[in-house]
Design a protein that fits this description.
Catalytic activity: glycolate + A = glyoxylate + AH2; (R)-lactate + A = pyruvate + AH2
Number of domains: 3
Low-confidence stretches: 1-13
Largest sheet: 5 strands, mixed
Pfam family, one: CCG
CATH architecture of the largest domain: Up-down Bundle
Cofactor: [4Fe-4S] cluster
Number of strands: 9
Bound molecules: iron/sulfur cluster
Protein name: Glycolate oxidase iron-sulfur subunit
Strand content: 5-15%
GO molecular function: 4 iron, 4 sulfur cluster binding; glycolate dehydrogenase activity; metal ion binding
CATH topology of the largest domain: Glutathione S-transferase Yfyf (Class Pi), Chain A, domain 2
């Protein structure tokens, strides 16, 4: 009789260690806040692709709640559902109950990753190398940058492409190689130093968040960011000791490592004494604005993390709201452009008008709004590597809409989205018709030559 009276949740806590971890970590308030209305369903790309309830935000929350309540065991299918989610967070602005779905997903993934007996030794080693040894170590990132730069400049890249040697590699590596940006062995600080005065009267002093991958694969975008900011009246400092934002860690179940990186960044930017912390990558910015939540259980860092989060702003928002905008000209007779939102910039930082306003200010361009521009492109951090099938399906639909705009330039605000768009353009044979460009590079290209 005693056994019969025992609740299923108590029973599962004792038999399934993953269930116990999920029950501990999943926020019960967020789980119960979901009233199952389904308003989030039309916003969800994985639901749009499959039409399956379990592939929707409401379905995933129901699965988490069933595990938290002890009425379901977290089996392989449960884990797969959590991994199929893009983490694009389009469900959040659509939700009338303000359910913090992103937090639930991170809590679920964190519990799953803690429960790593199922990982092969190869997976464990590569996760350890990427998350703990590479991204948080800017020296190693630069070493990767230098190796790529050597590959690109030594003639090896040309040889690999012309000889067909690339065909020996897996398909996704061939695709990535085709869209590899020009790598740099030197980060932005080595290239231009740490402090840059405003042109004209100073509006504010801001700090640039340079990013880890951005600093070696998109160094010119960072340089252009500094040019735009100083031109618009901001003094720019680039704190040298800043580190990776931790977004890939937080989204992949490495919450403790993400917290450690956050503490380092909070300290460094607090010491810089600036009025804004500027991000030019939606993926990074979205975690930076949530450092307050990431460190909310840490009494030592809680207050400074709140200060940090409140001071982070995307470059487009800063330029539009506080900057002295330069004139942007277009040399070509006419040019048609379109824009793919960065999910995290739009859904977490809630910035979608500012980039559109900025690009429309370039004289001589015609802006064509793309259908479903607010829908994820399938890049989603490393989703296109871990879930290539779904990412490919989403990208195919995206490229149909891109093609319909007949744009010559496709703009984005995040390096991951930019690479995914470049990949889509290659894959769909649109290389001769259009190019994908970061909005910062586009604006910089259209500044008056004397101002660069
Ligand atoms: S984060 Fe994106 S993919 Fe995941 S449930 Fe929400 S809308 Fe769907
Ligand atoms: S919109 Fe919000 S409350 Fe409604 S089902 Fe989706 S997550 Fe739940």
């Amino acid at each position: 009789m005693a056994n019969q009276a025992q609740s299923p949740s108590v029973h599962h806590k004792t038999v399934n260690p993953l269930a116990a971890k999920l029950q501990l970590r999943l926020d019960p308030d967020q789980l119960t806040n979901c009233m199952r209305c389904g308003f989030c369903l039309p916003a969800c790309p994985t639901f749009a692709e499959t039409g399956i309830e379990a592939e929707s935000p409401r379905g995933r929350i129901a699965l988490m709640k069933a595990v938290a309540d002890g009425i379901m065991e977290p089996d392989r299918a449960f884990e797969e559902q959590m991994n199929h989610c893009l983490g694009c967070r389009a469900c959040e602005p659509a939700c009338p109950a303000d359910v913090k779905y992103g937090r639930l997903l991170e809590q679920a993934r964190d519990a799953i990753e803690d429960h790593t007996e199922r990982h092969s030794i190869g997976v464990k080693l590569s996760r350890h190398a990427a998350f703990k040894k590479l991204f948080p170590n800017q020296k190693r990132m630069k070493l990767i940058g230098r190796s790529l730069q050597w590959y690109q400049q030594s003639g090896l890249q040309k040889f690999a492409r012309q000889s067909g040697a690339m065909k020996l590699f897996p398909k996704h590596m061939q695709a990535m190689e085709k869209i590899l940006p020009e790598a740099s062995g030197q980060g932005i600080v080595e290239q231009i130093g740490t402090r840059h005065p405003a042109k004209g009267e100073r509006i504010a002093t801001v700090a640039l968040f340079r990013g880890c991958l951005m600093d070696v694969l998109f160094t010119s975008t960072n340089r252009h960011t500094v040019d735009l900011l100083t031109e618009a009246g901001f003094e720019v400092v680039i704190p040298e000791e800043q580190n990776c934002c931790g977004a890939l860690h937080a989204h992949s179940g490495e919450a403790e490592m993400a917290r450690s990186l956050a503490r380092q960044n909070v300290q460094v930017f607090k010491d810089a004494g600036v009025e804004f912390i500027v991000s030019n990558a939606g993926g990074c910015g979205a975690l930076l604005v949530e450092y307050d939540h990431l460190l909310h259980e840490d009494p030592t860092w809680k207050e400074d993390a709140s200060w940090f989060a409140a001071h982070v702003i995307d470059i487009s928002e800063l330029l539009v709201r506080h900057g002295r905008l330069p004139e942007f000209h277009n040399e070509d007779v006419s040019i048609r452009i379109t824009y793919q939102d960065s999910c995290h910039l739009r859904n977490v930082m809630r910035t979608s008008d500012a980039p559109r306003q900025l690009m429309k200010q370039v004289k001589g361009v015609t802006y064509a709004e793309m259908k479903d521009a607010d829908r994820c492109c399938g890049s989603a951090g490393i989703y296109n590597l871990t879930q290539p099938e779904m990412a490919g399906q989403i990208l195919d639909h995206k490229m149909e809409h891109v093609r319909d705009t007949q744009a010559q330039v496709l703009l984005t605000s995040n390096p991951g989205c930019l690479l995914q768009m470049k990949h889509g353009i290659e894959q769909h044979g649109l290389r001769d018709q259009m190019q994908a460009v970061h909005i910062v590079d586009f604006l910089h290209d259209h500044m008056h030559p004397s101002r660069k």
